[in-house]
Amino acid sequence: MYRAIGPIWEANHMWLIIAIVILFVGFPVIYTTMSIYLHIPLTIMLLGIIARGTAFTFRNYDAVKDKMQVVYSKTFMYSSVITPLFLGIIAGSAVSGRIDPNANNFLDAYVFSWLAPFPVAVGIFTVIICAFLASIFIIGETKSEEDKTRFVTKSKHMSLAALIAAVLVFIVATIENIPLAHWLFGNPVSIACVLLAIASLIWMWASLFTRQTKLLRVIAAAQITLLLVAITYEHYPVLINLKNSEGLSLLTQHGDVKTIRSLGIALLAGSVLILPSLFYLLYSFSNRQEE
C-alpha cells in the first residue's frame, strides 16, 4: 500500500485545499451554504481525512513495531470508509434539493439536509467506487501473482457491488422524486457517457482476465469520469439544488469578476509549477521501486 500511494500521499490532499480555496474565494455564496447547512458531514469527512493520514504515516514510519500497528491499521481502515461515505453524502445532499434555507429548527436545517436515504445511498455508492478504484490500481503495484489474483477477484466483486449500489441509488431517487433518470437520459451527452461507461465495463472485465494493469487504470478512471459527466451535465452549472427549487450556479453565484480573473491566473500559474513536480515525483518513486 505504501508503494502504491506513498509517492502522491501528500500531493493527493491538494485537491481538497484547492477546492476549498476556489469555493471560498471565487464562489462565497456556495461555500457559505455548504459550510453552514452541511457542516456536520463536512466535519466528519475532514476528521476522517486527518485520521486516515496520521494513521497511515504512523503505521509506516513507526520505529517500534508493537500492538500500536494494529491500532494504526484499524484507524486507517475505518477512516478509509468514513471519508468517502460522507463525501458521497455531501454530494448527494447538494444535488437532491434537501438543503432548506428557510428551515426554522436545528434538525431540518442541519441534520435532515443530509441524513436521508438518497444522500446515504450516494455515500455507500461512493465507498464502493473508491474500493473498486483501489483494487484496480493495486493490481499493478504488487509483484506477487497470488496478490494479483486476489485483487483481480476484489475488482470483480467491487464492480458488481457498484452496479448493485447504483441500482439502489436509482430506486431511492425514484422514491424521493429526484430526477436522476432525467439527468442521465435527458440529453445526448449524458446518454453517450452512459453507453461509453457500459462499453468500458465490458472492456475492463476482458482486461482483468488478461491483467493489463496500465490499461485497467485508464479504463477505470475513464468510467468514473464518464459517470460524473453523465450525472452533472444536465444541471450544470448549478452546483447546489435548494429545497425551494432554486439552484446555486457557478455562473451567477460567483465573486467579483476581478477576483475570478485573478483566481484563474493563480490556478494556471500554480499548475505550471505543481504538475511537473508531481510527475517528477511519480517518476522518481517509480525508478526507485524498480531498483
From TrEMBL:
Its main location: membrane. The keyword Magnesium does not apply. The chain crosses the membrane at residues 12-30, 36-55, 76-95, 115-139, 160-183, 189-208, 215-233, 263-283. Pfam families: Cyt_bd_oxida_II (PF02322). It is found in: Cell membrane. The keyword Signal does not apply. InterPro entries: Cyt-d_oxidase_su2. It comes from the Bacteria. It is a multi-pass membrane protein. Keywords: Cell membrane, Membrane, Transmembrane, Transmembrane helix. PANTHER family: CYTOCHROME BD2 SUBUNIT II (PTHR43141:SF4). Belongs to the cytochrome ubiquinol oxidase subunit 2 family. This is Cytochrome d ubiquinol oxidase subunit II. It comes from Niabella ginsengisoli. The lineage of its organism: Bacteria, Pseudomonadati, Bacteroidota, Chitinophagia, Chitinophagales.
